[in-house]
Every structure is written in structure tokens, then in C-alpha cells.
Amino acid sequence: DNAKTRLSFQAEVAQLLHLVTHSLYSNKEIFLRELISNASDACDKLRFEALDKPALYEDAPNLEVRVAFDKAARTLTITDNGIGMSQQEAIDHLGTIAKSGTKDFMSRLTGDQKANASEQGQLIGQFGVGFYSGFIVADRITVESRRAGLKPEEGVRWASGGAGDFEVEPLTRAQRGTSVILHLREDADEYLNAWKLKQVISKYSDHISLPILMEKEEWKEGENDQGGEMVPTGEWEPVNKASALWTRPKKDISDEQYAEFYKSISHDYEAPLAWSHNRVEGSTEYTQLLYIPAKAPHDLWNREHKAGVKLYVKRVFIMDEAEALLPGYLRFVKGVIDSADLPLNVSRELLQESRDVKAIREGSTKRVLSMLEDLARKSVKAAPESAEGKVDIGSGESTPAPEPTSQDGVTDVVDKKGEPAAEAAAAHAEEAGKYARFYAEFGSVLKEGLGEDFGNRERIAKLLRFASTTSDTVNVSFADYKARMKEGQQAIYYITADTLAAARNSPQLEVFRKKGIEVLLMTDRVDEWALNYLHDFDGTPLQSVAKGAVDLGQLQDEAEKKAAEEAAEGFKPVLDKLKAALKDKAEDVRVTTRLVDSPACLVVQDHGMSMQLARMLKQAGQ
Ligand code: ADP
Ligand code: MG
């Protein structure tokens, strides 16, 4: 039947569309990036489904995207021959917010801070809101589609003016795939121009691995003001490079292209902090392009937080969020891994068991750790007051060496020649701040690695930073600490607490302060748990100042010790009374040398659960 059905958008979509159409735009052009990326996703999906069902290719095995405009009709059309949509899929995917990320983004736009219209416009511009971005330039969008494998009569036409509702009706469409037809607003004339379209496509979509075609135009003499005009020739030509970015040689890729690619795969609008692009050869062959984001997503701590790495096999997209490719504590890393060895039909379950995947995971983990070591080393270089060279780079690397031309995103600005001094200094300062930025966002996640990745525990430990009794900023590494240890000091001392103030004011620190011994202040919720897995650093034991009797080793004053022993003898009756009075509350009561001003403090047994952990478990209702 030909019935037109009118349906309402999901409430959130209507709200989003209202935002899209009522915000001012500094960069309208991102709509094209979003629609081309959907076209490319649709082709990826077809390629994947066709692995099992080659018939889905019908008579058009070459996947492509076409961008065309019609000046007279004022339309811009983006057509792909990808997977297409059935009527129900068009209703479900275009009428609701399918992607949870978009929902979260929305709540940021409309949430606590209530961005004003121009800020909203900025945000939408940087982030993109997928399909709905089309309404930035169009007052009406028509989508014509037919899903691969369905009959020509089973196509669908979807149309909406971007207000509260949309219409769907059946359509006969010989070609599989989708056309998105934008009926341009009055102020969007610039997109009826081939030059402008090509410029936007190469800016945002150059890395798309499919050809994006536009019709060639040629000059035709005429009677108008300009003496002629450009007319279409019927011949189509690619306007992008059409090779997946990670397959190209590094020397051909600019920093901007790397950053743009990152934005397109991460849905992040900020440039990444660092990246690493390598082809790994050896028994397992793969290409990795891994990025460290500059900002943590708000759901980093959710159980459902998805891994950020996409898996390709020989350039064929296999899956998003391939959690088997990196350990959980590196879940903030985004990027692409393209394997030459895995079968195309690999499933998530198979991935967990594959030996190739194990090799990829180990190699990629080492890659990420070296990227971080690199950032950390640069921040040390730039801060001469802290000891240089404490971070031992590349220790324990056992993966096949990356290409000798390896040129990562963490380029060493210090070595760049011919830069004006002021610029170099600014770049230097920016480079120097990167590790601190990384650590503020992801340090807590990295700590999970102490418990999760035994093989790399030492490398991870070197990357950790803490505040201490001599530093308010979280910038003290275990190595820095060791370099400052007192003559005769035999342990790295630390205290855990809920806040920096609580840690700093703890009576347990009194004797350390008196003797001028630095103590690391740990206030992160995961510290307690993570430190359970780290007993020493580089041969020096870690010792909580809140556990057991503090043994200051050779730093202990003999006279003090003796005095304490005598006092313990003298106070025995008092201690016995206290023990009896507190028998349900305290295991032991003893005289201590750890206090200077305070009369008493609580400590836990040497191997007991620490107080912080006990408190956490209590909070969790255990
Ligand atoms: P996202 O691409 O992040 O999923 P979008 O808002 O861009 O979000 O698109 C929403 C959904 O609409 C897509 O997930 C897809 O299912 C469907 N869709 C959009 N464009 C196309 C297309 N060209 N071909 C097939 N499906 C599409
Ligand atoms: Mg999209």
C-alpha cells in the first residue's frame, strides 16, 4: 500500500532538533562530515554482512558515496550504496536517538550549566549530532532508502521538516542504499557550489576509505553576466584520497589529519594529547593507530563504559569497542587496530581466545605505556627543578620493534630546529603540561593496572604521581621520592585518606615531619586497592604510615627508642586498663614514638585491612 504514515519523534529528538535549529553556527559545515560518515558506516555494515551473504552486493560490488547538488531545486543529496534501511529501521534509527553518546551530549547542552545559544552552536559544531546535523542547513530532509537484500518495492521514503514529527511511506527503489536529500535553507546557498563542497569534504572526510564522488563540471559559454557557467558532464570523480588513514605512510599524514581522524572516531571535539601510529611486523602483523584523549568521557567509570578501539581486518571494519584489544585500565585509549592475520568472520568470543589477539594486546599495551613514558619524560625535561631522566623508557619492551620511521604524535618539540624562541618556549610549555593533563584525567584508571597487569606493573608504577608532604601538586613520582630519601631511610612512606587536608593533618605524620621525612599523600579512591599490588618500588618497600608499628629503621633515634621502651614499662598499668576498657574496640594499646604533639592515634595492624579500605567497604555496605 502507499499509505503515508505520520509519526512523532521521540521527545529527546524533538528537543535536540529544536536546539539544532535555534543555535547559531560558527561551523555549519560539519553536517556534511556527519552525513558522509553515516554513508561510510552504512558501507562498512554492508561489507561486514556480505562476508556471509555475498548476494547482498547485488550487481554493485563497488561501494561509494556520491555528493550531488541541484541549484534550481536547492537540494544537496548524499547517496551511498551501503546497507540501506527498511521502513522499520528508518523509523527506529531516524526517529529516536539511537546512540547513547548523543543522549549524553544533549544532557550537557541542556544540563546544569545551560549553555547559551551560541555556546550550544559551538558545541554542536565541534561534536556533531549525527544525522540531525542535516537540519543545520536544511529546513526539510527526505531520506530514500532500500535495505540490501530486500525487494525494490520494499524501499522507504522518510521525510521531516525538523519539528515534532516525520512521515514515512513505501517506495520502489532499484538501487540498494540510501539517499539523504537536504532541502537547503535560504542562508545555505554556499553548499550549492562544487568548490565549497570539495573543500569541506577534504577537510573532514579525506580519510574515509571509500571514494566520495562528485560530478565533474565544465565551463560552458553563455549569455549571462559571467558569460557562461559551470555545467555537469555526467562523469563522476573522487574528491577524497579514499584510502584509510592508518594505511597511509606517516610522512604523508599531517598533524591536522591525525587530529581530524581522532575526532571522527572518538566523537570527541578536542584534539588528542598524543598518538602513535605503527605497523608491527613479525609473527603477528597489524597496524595500530592509538590516541590518548585530552579529556576523560563522563562515563569512564561506568561499568558499561565501552573500550575505544575499533578492529579492522585487512581494512574491513569488523567491530567497534573491541575490548579484547587492550586491558581494561587502558580503556580510555581510542584508535584503530587493523590485523592482517585474523579471520574476517571473527566474533567477540573468538577474539578473547585468539593468540594473535593476545599478541596485539600485549604489543598495543606496550605502545601506550611508551607513549605515556614519552609524555612523562618531556614534562621532566621541561621542569629542570625536578630530577631528569628518572623515567626509564622502554624497559622490558619485547614487542617487535616498530618501523624505524616511527614518528608518533608526541613529537619532540625540544629537538625541532629553526623555531622562533617564543613559539618554541610556548610549544615546550604545552608539551610539558601534557603529562599532568593526562594524569589529572586518567591517572586513577591507570592505577588499576597495578592489579590488572602484573607483567607491566613496574612500568605502570613509574608512571604514577602523588602529592606529598613536600608537594601540593600531584607530581611526585616514586623515583623522585627515592632520589630525595634521607640517608638511612629504608622505605617509601605513604598515607591514604579521603582528602589532601585529612592526609596532611593526620597525627600519624608527626614523627615524619619532625624528622623531615617526606610522606606520599594518597587521596584517590583506588589508591588503597592498587597499593595492595605494589609492595616495593625499585627494591625499596612501600610502607603505610598508618599500619603497624612504624619502623624508621636507622632513622630511629636510639635514645628515643629506649625512652619509649621505658615508658611502655612505666605505663603498663595504664595500658592494661585502657586495653580492658577498649577490649571490643581495639586489638592492642601501646606506647608509640610516632606522635609528637597528639596524645593518641589509631593505627591498623601490619597486615590488617587499612582504615581507608575498611571505611570504603563499610560505605559499600559490607
Ligand atoms: P550514529 O551514526 O552515531 O549511529 P546518527 O544520528 O548519525 O548516529 O545516525 C543514526 C542512525 O541512522 C545510524 O546509526 C544508522 O542506523 C541510521 N543511518 C543514518 N544514515 C544512514 C545511511 N546513510 N545508511 C543507513 N543507515 C543510516
Ligand atoms: Mg553518524
Automatic annotation (TrEMBL):
UniProt keyword Signal, yes or no: no
Record's keyword annotation contains Phosphoprotein: no
Domain of life of the organism encoding this protein: Bacteria
Main location: cytoplasm
Subcellular compartments: Cytoplasm
Residue numbers spanned by region Disordered: 380-413
GO molecular function: ATP binding; ATP hydrolysis activity; ATP-dependent protein folding chaperone; unfolded protein binding
InterPro entries, per the entry: HATPase_C_sf, Heat_shock_protein_90_CS, HSP90_C, Hsp90_fam, Hsp90_N, Ribosomal_Su5_D2-typ_SF
Xref: Pfam families: HATPase_c_3 (PF13589), HSP90 (PF00183)
Region (A): 1-348
Family statement drawn from the similarity comment of this UniProt entry: Belongs to the heat shock protein 90 family.
Subunit structure: Homodimer.
Entry function: Molecular chaperone. Has ATPase activity.
Listed name of the protein: Chaperone protein HtpG
Origin species: Xenophilus arseniciresistens
Designated gene of the protein: htpG
